[in-house]
Amino acid sequence: MSSVQIRDVRKSFGNFEVLHGVSIPIEDGQFVVLVGPSGCGKSTLLRMLAGLENITSGTISIGDRVVNNVQPKERDIAMVFQNYALYPHMTVGENMGFSMKLRGESTDEINKRVKRAAEILALSPLLERYPRQLSGGQRQRVAMGRAIVRDPQVFLFDEPLSNLDAKLRVAMRTEIKELHQRLKTTTVYVTHDQIEAMTMADKIVVMHDGVVEQMGTPLELYDTPENQFVAGFIGSPSMNFLKGHVRVNGVATFEGPNGVKLPLKNAPAASDGRPVVYGVRPEHFTIADDGADAEIVVVEPTGSETQVFAKLGGEQVVAVFRERHQFNPGDKVKLKPDPSLVHLFDDATGKRL
Amino acid sequence: MAVMAESAVAQVKRSSMWTRAFESRNFLGAMFMVPAIAILILFLAYPLALGLWLGMTDTKIGGVGRYIGFGNFVSLAKDSVFWLSVFNTIFYTFAASIVKFAIGLYLALLLNERLPFKSMVRAIVLLPFVVPTVLSAIAFWWIYDSQFSIISWVLLKAGLITHYIDFLGDPWNARWSVVAANIWRGVPFVAITLLAGLQTISPSLYEAANLDGATNLQRFRHITLPMLSPIIAVVMTFSVLMTFTDFQLIYTITRGGPINATHLMATLSFQRAITGGNLGEGAAISNAMIPFLVAAILLSFFGLQRSRWQQGGRD
User: Fold this and answer.
1) Hey, are the CB atoms on A88 and B204 less than 8 Å from each other?
2) Interface predicted TM-score of the whole assembly (ipTM), two decimals
């Protein structure tokens, strides 16, 4: 196990820069998730960490050692690929023991370590099978087993669950988290799925267009997103944004599209008339008599909660209720955001106010 | 009235029989196979049977043959030229196939890397395959000419030899010369097919092996070779079959000479049957190739049996 330091790392393909100076400190034993939309550079960064891509500038160190010019095999890392990259002509056991075989370790030692990893992952009955004979979830576990056998300083995961069906994904998510709690190996995990990020990470790094937008614990990102991008990316269904102005008239309020008035806890400095974006999460709406007028468009019950799409000041917003309100399309309701949980962003820069 | 009604009923019956027949999967399936079967019988089975029959007769050109059983084979068994052609064919096939495989694999690996002008290099590699065989054979004939050979000229100018090499006059020189020509012609097929095989290997396997600590050589030994083995089996079967039955190169460059040193079974068969007029004996020589070809096909059939790792599903 060891810490990982990524300092001002840049990556260019030809003249095209895809990473514009990324710095991420990763503590020993931490589970860090790099999350962002496709094309944000998260996979490239992971591959640079693995040594599969060159580093254009900046440094990456694993432990105390700068690894910019260290061969992948000497970095003491293990990677789980999106397509698992299992060797099709080797059995599960051979796949898992391949790295040890290459290092010239004894058959006894290889068998011992493979057996132990197989027990951890419940793969023992499958050791003689070939990858083709396994289901997606089993292949995924073999890929993890191959990583575990190596007992590396750092685990790297490159979107490992994206080839699985929804149910299996949830199960494997828990399994990976459990595995990390058991082995406590430093882990860097790349995904585009913010739910995976929220549920698994000790620390989330939100990336967008080759820069880090924000890093922090899952709840920090959820509660205090630093900008509109992070606010919109984290959380499902995503946060509602309304453009408008701050009005300070004794109490601060937000004046949205078509003059809709929404409450504010406190006004940002020098703010009367300032153009802002008002952000409110779907779960922070309540039905209240002093709420703003809205018209129900669509109601989607999921059992545990109900998603309600409504027109608020002409804009479509989503609200989520755990209570079972009786709504029908066309109904008029009064929606009220919880002022203490409302987010305000600068209209021009998108920064949190 | 009654007659008309009856014939109308018959009409309906007949058309419904046709309709039913065309709706039957078995009938339709048989109908679709008819053209293929006709072509196979007309152009493959019939000539093969005719050849087998001819080999059992003493047919001469222009004459009607008599059935003589295995008479041709008995006389061939005592014929030293026939046995020389068998040796030549086996030598030619093995020497050329081994070198073609080695060079082809090397080129395929090279072309699979990132190269400048990659597609152009690939096109150039394919050239020998595109040039008509007889044209390239004539070019080789000139290259091997005893007086005008460019190889001899270059070596002489370089001071490496003192007189022109007699490429096609000496038995072993001639054998190696035609093998070289066959290699030149056959390498593109092996190289391009193996390249296609290499491109189906997922790059992430190499990345995984790289992280697992494999050196270049270990990656080749543990990833490339096993993943490529099914394609290698197919390519080498085809290569062996094509080389074993080769005719054009030999016939154009040496005509089997000197003193039958480069006669293959195919060229000897042609010489005895068409040039010499002994159709029966020529056919018998051709038929003698069949056991060798069957052996090669069987070998590849068992070699090609999908290994366990290629089979899908659960056991």
Assistant:
1) no
2) 0.80
